[in-house]
Structure formats: C-alpha cells, structure tokens
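To whoever is on call:

I kicked off a structure prediction for a single chain this morning and the downstream step that reads the tokens threw a length-mismatch warning. I double-checked the sequence; it's 681 residues and nothing unusual in it as far as I can see. Pasting both halves so you can look.
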Amino acid sequence: MKNMKNILLIFSISFAFSNLITPEDGAILNRIHVLFEWKQIPEAISYDLRISEDENFYSIIYEKTDSSLAYIDKNNLSWQKTYYWQIRANFNNQSSDWCTPFSFTTTQALSSSSVNYINESQYQAGVTVFGAFFNYFSAGIDQTGKEIWNSGANNFVYYSSNSFGNVFGCNLLSGAENNLPGMEISFQNEIIWEEPNDEFLHHDIIKLPNGNYLGIVETNSLGPIPIGGWTASFQNLGFQADGITIEFPWIGDKLVEWDKDTKEVVWTWSTFDHFSMSDYDQFGGTWTEAYLSLHYDWTHVNAVIFDESESAIYISTRHLSRITKIDYPSGEIIWNLGHEMPSGQVSMGTEIGFSFQHSLQKLENGNILIFDNGNLSPEFCGTDQPISRAIEIGINDNIANIAWSYDLPPNLFGFASGNAQKLENGNVLITTVGGGGQSIEVNDQGEIVWEGLYNLSLPYGAVYRAHRIPGLYPAAYSILIDYYMDNNGAPGVFISPETSGISFTITNEGAYHLPLLVQITDNENWFGPQEIEITIDPHSSMPVTFDGNVTNLTYANPIQLFVEPVHHPNKAKTVVVNGFTSPLNIDDPKKISSNYFTLENPYPNPFNSNVSIYYTLQNQQNVLLQVYDLGGKLINTIIHETLSAGRHHSTWNALHESSGVYVVKLSSSNQIKTHKILYIK
C-alpha cells in the first residue's frame, strides 16, 4: 500500500500544469484588487501562488501559500501593467512543478481622487464606490484614495449597492430615447440584468426580495399653470395660465416593477394617481425652468428603497421636498413627510425644513437617513445661505423629529445629487457635489474621520452618489473536495459503504456574508439528490457533508456538487468528483468515460442579447457547443475544439436573431446535453 501511495503522489505532481481559472489567460482587468482562482490537485495540502512582472518570474512582486483555491490580492498591483501568475501544489514532503503561467493586464485609472484626511482608528474599512454624471463613469477607491476599480469604457454611472453586494446603476446610450437604462452589474463589469429600455428610467433602480427589479420612470400628463409671478410670461406665450385650465405638460414619476425573468411590468405606482396637482414647488425656480423648457418637472422622484419587514416602499420627491411611505403592493400612501402643501397630504415633519433632498436609507432602529440638499434652507430654516446636511429622522406616533444631523460647511453646499449612508461602525458617509465632489465620514460626535476628494468640476463632471462597501467580490469562494486523491489516473475520493459519506470544505474569501444553495447528485444515486442552504461568514470556512447509501462498485461514480450563491446565481460553481469504493482497475472497461461533462443552466434565462453558458469537463475532450431553433435549424456554432478539463464559459450574442425559444446543445463523441433558452429583444 505504501508503494501505491508513492505512485499516486508522483502522478499528481507530474500533471499539475493546467490548473488556473481566474484571471483567464490574456484577461484585461478593470480593477487592481484581483481575485485569483485555481483547480484542486489530488492530495495537495496547500498551494503556492506567485505573481511576477515578467513571464520568466525574475521580478516576483508577491508570493503566498494558501490552503484554499482562491485568494484576493489587494496590495500589490498597479494600473496599466501586465502581470504573470502561477501556482504549484504542496504535498506532505514535496511540491509539484510550477504550472504554466497565465497573464493579465490592468487598464488605466479613470478618476483623480485623493484623500485629504484619515483617522485610521475610526475609519470604516472597505471600498468607497462613486458614480459621476456628465463624464459618465464610476470608480472605487481605498482608504488612501487609490483607485482600485472603474467602469472602463462602459459609461456606467453607479447608483447603489445593497447588503448582498448587488450593484445598480445606469449606462449611457448615446442617441437612444431612453439613454440611461437601469441595470445590475458586477464589479467585473458583467451585465447581470438590464431594464427593457422602453421608458425613461432615472435616478434609481433596486432589487426586491422576490428577485424583481423596481425603478423610477418618467411619466407625464397635462396640468394647469398656477397663478404666480411667472403667470404673465406664460400668458405671453399664448397659455391661459389661470390656475384652472388643463393645458401644460407636467412631468411626473412612476414606480415600475419588472419581472426578473420576463421583464414584463407586474406593478406600477404613479405620482399623478396619488399626489395632488395643487401641490408644487413655489420657491425653487421650477416654474421658471418650465417656462424655458415648455414642460414642468413636477415631482422629480430621486430615490426609492424597499423595507421587507414592513412590505413598504419609501420614495424621495425632490421638487415637493417630500418623503413618502407607500404600502406594497396596495399602493396606499401610509404617510407623507416634509414641506406643508395646500392639499394637506403632508401629515408630519413640516418643521424639519429639508428641501430638494436626495437619497434614502432605512436604519436598523427604524429611523430614516436622508441627504438634505437644502436649496430652500433660507426659506424653510431661516439660514443666511443654502446649507446642505445629513439628517436622521425618527418617526413615532405620526410625529417626526431630527434624531441626528450634520451640517456641511457653506463651501460644500450641494445643490443637486449627493447622499448619506450610515456605516456598520455607526459613522455616516456624506457625499456632496460641493467642493468638486467630496465624501466625508463623520462619527456620531460630528468629528470628521475621513475625507475623500473626487476632483470633479462642473459642468464636465459631478459626483452622483457614493457608498462604502465591504469589497469588490461578494461571491468569492472556493470548494475543496476533502480526502481528494488519485486512483490509477482517475482523481476522486474513496467512500466506504459503511460510512456512506462525502465531505467538502467551502471557503468564503470575500468580505460579505455568503448565503449558498448546495446540491449534490450522482450517477449511481448514492446521495439523492440532496439540497441544503448555508451561510458562510466573511473570511470563514464551512464543512459540508452528505450522507447517502453507497453500494460497492469497481468503477467510478461521478458525483456532482452544485453551489449557487443565492444573490449571485451567475457565480455558481459545479464540482465533479469520482466516487470509488475500491481501487480502480486500469483495464476495467467501465472506468469513467473521458467524455463525461455537465452543462449548467444558461444565465440569464430569459436573456436580452447575451447569454452565458457554463459547462464542466471531467477530462480533456473535443466538444461541440451549438444553438438551434425549435425547428432544428442550426443557428450558431459557438465552440468546436478540444478543451482542457474543468469549468468553461462561453457567450452567445443573439442580437441579430428574432425573439423566441432556442436550444443550447453541448455534445462530445458519446454524450449530448441540451438546455432551452428564451431570447427577448
């Protein structure tokens, strides 16, 4: 038995050459915080990773030994450089050869951000991500102001990121009627979901607990021109302008919920249906703008959030200086908070005096945090000049009070955009367009602990929002097969019929809590299928064991472990491992087929233009990946070549095809697997 062990170890060492996964060879990266992933090697107890500035590894900039299969480097890479990386496996008393290296190149930085001050002992760790309008890009900076991610050439403007690490924003489409469609992306600049782009979406889009998307869409109706100082000007244009006649285009807002799969509209809510047209801005110059543009920007909703515990939607309506709580799905208004208006619909908070506000955050204590732009603070609060502030509002028994506030200095007055975010450590991150665009982090005593400068000058650029997030990789994890070894050329695990169990170790390499759906299946029905849900804390590992009914066999039983991050299904992984109950006979005709593979569900499905297809090959083999229509007509051959063992990714672009159902077909010499996909233009 000892001799067999030595033979197996030698086999493992000599074949540890093509085990790199991410970054792919030749990849172009829009980030310098880089996730490295590689494949497991039988009997390895750890792995050495090294990164070099040259392909011969004379200029090694980083080396690390890691027992998992993934590592995030945050400190050693720069922009506009090409790097080379490789790994080797470590066994009990020796190491394998270094594998063939992969290369990747980082693009250029887009921002000119800097940090003016930092109190490291009170700073909330993470990445500050911001979006910029007019020059249309987004970027992320570390605590020193160093840019570590950007949106590249995608013209993406960041809106928000939720607690699960889903990222939302818009993408500038020049020449399109709806030129800022909302979308969800990853920090690898993958488009996860995009709204149908048939109405003008603006300011905000979020993901609901049911998986659907909710956004703010422009809508319009005719309304009167109220009596006021502008009346005569409108009358000179030929309007009645008598406060009664329905004659002038009013622009309002509509909340739209889209089905995550079909993108059909499943719920709407309109300001025209729930707000009175007797309520309108009287101080902020919106009617003067209406005279110049010949339409009235009435409500200008600029933020939306959803509270699952209350099944309630909160919106910020800038031009009414109002925050509204809406019951979902009935659409009934629970309350309006803010500036008193003629309709009497505002029930509380009139004395707070916020105006033209942006952003909303529902806090754990039930309070609401907003960014008060303060355009009308001289009129509403009696200040000498406009003052912007962050305000935490407490609401109890229909009474609203300021629980906490922070006034920005006059030079940081933000007449538009901006936001406030309560951080995990209790600090508040406040972002303003003032001073060239800045974010300041203040503690509960109002002391500045960090100040980031974006150096964006109007009219060429302006910061929209900024948030502090834990990191760029909310679904960075690895799956280790426990007791993984080689069995006469077929790597796998020995499973005793007496114990009938198989174990894996899943490691969360990221800074987010990671909920996972874990499924196991196998060809011999040893384990079920079985399915469990687990959550792994940041930078932690969790063992996963499945018990089954193992029967004796003399050949390999392929066991498939499918792991899907609940909030990031595009980051699902499939591990295939051979299960054995005895050493494999090399001459056994039932030895595992070299052509075995798995085909995952294409994502997204339904899809718009691009669909991702993931498949895992047990061994190196020639594969044919094709797309057919339902009539059996070949539409496209995506791949027809020999590929290495492991997980692969292909993309089909259906831009020039008709909407409808298609079939993805993956085949080898003796196996075929298919999946139906729905293309919606």
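Update from on-call: the warning came from a stale cache, not from the record. Cleared it. Sanity check on the structure: The first strand starts at residue 20 and ends at 22.
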